Amino acid sequence: GAVVSQHPSRVICKSGTSVKIECRSLDFQATTMFWYRQFPKQSLMLMATSNEGSKATYEQGVEKDKFLINHASLTLSTLTVTSAHPEDSSFYICSARLAGLNEQFFGPGTRLTVL
Amino acid sequence: DAKTTQPPSMDCAEGRAANLPCNHSTISGNEYVYWYRQIHSQGPQYIIHGLKNNETNEMASLIITEDRKSSTLILPHATLRDTAVYYCIVRVARYSTLTFGKGTMLLVSP
């Protein structure tokens, strides 16, 4: 149980385009989902926290207009990187917290490459 | 959440026990010790957590010192697939998000 999926696993796009990444909790309802970003040889950095049905809370330094997060249901959250640039190339990982519990379960990650 | 300190890297021979230390000298009474690992190009995987008692599950054992200022994650019989970055995280259960440090890169060799 407690499986989190991400789609796509890998995406390559041209500079200036937008990319949407989906995060799904497959066998549980997640009231809270988290989005992390990981640059090569660095640790995971929390970008934002989203609660179902409300606006996401972004960490300092993360542009909310560039990284659009939607958490419209208890099993799906999306991250849209708008007008992507090469510096947005990174490994994006989502995490979901099971309602009523404290455990966070992570997705397999999405490798974004912006040319 | 309290800060943790881990060695940047460790080596272990396949089949031997891997003992990964973590220092959390400023831990508060209501903070738990969590361990996650991240295999290359994958999302983090939960391993184990504890408050003050030692814990064991099918993956590992967690030994927390009596003063709770440090802990050790033990992989009893390391395999090549245990090669990963291991993160020790201290957090107040239920309310705080997971904040990752640099972790320990464990390399298990044949």
Entry summary:
With 115 residues, chain A is mainly beta. Chain A has no helices and eleven strands. Chain A starts with a strand and ends with a strand.
Question: Describe it for me?
Answer:
- The complex is a heterodimer of chains A (115) and B (110).
- With 115 residues, chain A is mainly beta.
- Chain A is 0% helix and 55% strand.
- In chain B, 0% of the residues lie in helices and 47% in strands.
- Chain B has no helices and nine strands.
- Chain B has strands spanning 9-13, 18-23, 31-38, 45-50, 55-56, 61-64, 70-75, 84-92, 104-109.
- Chain B is globular and about 40 Å long.
- The model of chain B has no long low-confidence stretch (mean pLDDT 93).
- The chains are: A mainly beta (115), B mainly beta (110).
- The interface between A and B is medium-sized, with 21 and 17 residues.
Outline the fold blueprint:
The complex is a heterodimer of chains A (about 120) and B (about 110).
Chain A: E1 4-7, E2 10-13, E3 19-25, E4 30-38, E5 45-51, E6 57-58, E7 67-73, E8 76-81, E9 90-98, E10 104-106, E11 110-114
Parallel strand pairs in A: 2-11
Antiparallel strand pairs in A: 1-3, 3-8, 4-5, 4-9, 5-6, 7-8, 9-10, 9-11
Chain B: E1 9-13, E2 18-23, E3 31-38, E4 45-50, E5 55-56, E6 61-64, E7 70-75, E8 84-92, E9 104-109
Parallel strand pairs in B: 1-9
Antiparallel strand pairs in B: 2-7, 3-4, 3-8, 5-6, 6-7, 8-9
